[in-house]
Design a protein that fits this description.
It is a single chain. With 81 residues, the protein is of the alpha+beta class. The protein is built from two helices and seven strands, in the order ββαβββββα. It has a three-stranded antiparallel β-sheet, with no helix packed on it. A two-stranded antiparallel sheet has the order 1-2. Strands 3-4 form a two-stranded antiparallel ribbon. The longest helix has 8 residues. The chain is globular and about 40 Å long. The two termini are 23 Å apart.
Length: 81
């Protein structure tokens, strides 16, 4: 798990962690990533349908097609900075 305080190893599956987190603050973007909505700067949609997540810290992640509908549902009521 990566936080602003560092990188930590945890013994739970991502599904278990996802169940513990507030879905209004966190969203799963792929099989291997859950991201805080407050850390997202913007989304870039490419012509081939790929969605890139640009984070406030300058990092980038890519949304799996499997999670696109879930992301759309979660971000409708959230203001992205």
């Amino acid at each position: 798990m990566q936080t602003k305080k560092g990188l930590f190893q945890i013994r739970k599956t991502l599904y278990q962690i996802e169940a513990l987190l507030d879905e209004k603050q966190f969203v799963r973007i792929s099989h291997s990533e859950i991201i805080s909505l407050s850390k997202i700067m913007n989304f870039d949609l490419s012509f081939n349908g790929t969605i890139c997540v640009n984070c406030i810290d300058g990092s980038k992640s890519y949304v799996s097609r499997r999670y696109v509908s879930k992301i759309k549902k979660n971000i409708r009521s959230v203001k992205i900075v």
